[in-house]
Design brief:
Oligomer: single chain
CATH class of the largest domain: Alpha Beta
Number of domains: 2
Shape: globular
Number of strands: 10
Strand order of the largest sheet: 3-4-2-1-10
Helix content: 25-40%
Largest sheet: 5 strands, antiparallel
Order of helices and strands: EHEHEEHEHEHEHEHEHE
Number of helices: 8
Structural class: alpha/beta
């Protein structure tokens, strides 16, 4: 952060479910501790991001150091059975999250916390994502919870499915970044057909550059992939049961992991400017 900025350090207890693990390479379901370091610095250019964990890669000039040592960070994390995620936007900052398996005692505490997510009542939900794995995992979650999922691989296919089943589809869950007709275009198209249709968004952890565009759509929720099943089911239930004149649920905060911490879990946070 050559011009100054804010560095945020966070430690958090999380319960990762099988849905989150299925969407995240290297992750396993169970209790974890998440250590997060976020800055508001210059960010990492997209063309460099695939190389940042290479052992001998650096963007430093000779005599200016060797960089962040991310290869070592990744190695330590994996040796402890954990995994690492990061996202960065040029000019806006970078966030690294280290997930480490928690102790068996934390498992007991996490299992007893929270309540079961609300069940569906047979509503048909249209799931739109160009990744077949995401569609399959999401459909299984919805089916187990009492919904009837219908999948579409892109925006055009989703519009066709909705028109064919208009009146039967209760809500739409769509990815925001897709080839061809993207999520925002799909949302606007569906709203022209049915302004009252609940549409929830999904977006990848590293796709926050266009977050303002997504927020401008006024979606009841924007899920950050990979998300926990409880997060999806709660957001969907809320969108389907907004009282007359009520406001839909707000957006998930961009930097927060998709799996919510159990109530009462210890948390520490430090900020410096």
């Amino acid at each position: 952060m050559p011009r100054g900025g804010t560095l945020t350090l966070t430690a958090e207890n999380l319960q990762l479910d099988e849905t989150f693990a299925a969407m995240t390479p290297g992750a396993r379901a169970g209790p974890h501790v998440c250590l997060k370091v976020a800055d508001t610095g210059s960010g990492i250019p997209p063309e460099i991001q695939p190389k940042i964990f290479d052992p001998f890669f650096t963007t430093k000039e000779k005599g200016q150091g060797t960089g962040l040592g991310l290869a070592t960070v990744l190695g330590i994390t994996k040796n402890h059975g954990g995994f690492l995620r990061f996202a960065s936007t040029v000019g806006r900052g970078t966030c690294f999250e280290i997930y480490l398996p928690a102790t068996p005692a934390a498992q007991v505490a996490a299992d007893g916390a929270g309540s079961a997510p609300p069940r569906g009542e047979g509503q048909t939900i249209l799931v739109v994502d160009d990744d077949p794995a995401i569609c399959a995992v999401t459909a299984r979650i919805l089916e187990r919870q009492g919904y009837r999922p219908v999948c579409a691989a892109d925006g055009s296919e989703a519009v066709a499915a909705y028109v064919q089943q208009e009146g039967a589809i209760a809500a739409v869950l769509t990815d925001m970044v897709m080839p061809g007709m993207d999520g925002p275009t799909l949302v606007r198209t569906l709203r022209r057909i049915n302004p009252q249709l609940p549409v929830l968004g999904m977006t990848g952890y590293g796709e926050r550059a266009g977050l303002e565009v997504f927020e401008a759509l006024g979606l009841p929720s924007l899920l950050m992939k990979p998300f926990a099943a409880d997060r999806l089911l709660t957001a969907l239930h809320d969108a389907l049961h907004v009282p007359p004149g009520g406001r839909p649920a707000g957006f998930a905060t961009p930097w927060r992991p998709a799996a919510a911490a159990p109530p009462g879990a210890p948390r520490s946070e430090a900020r410096s400017s």
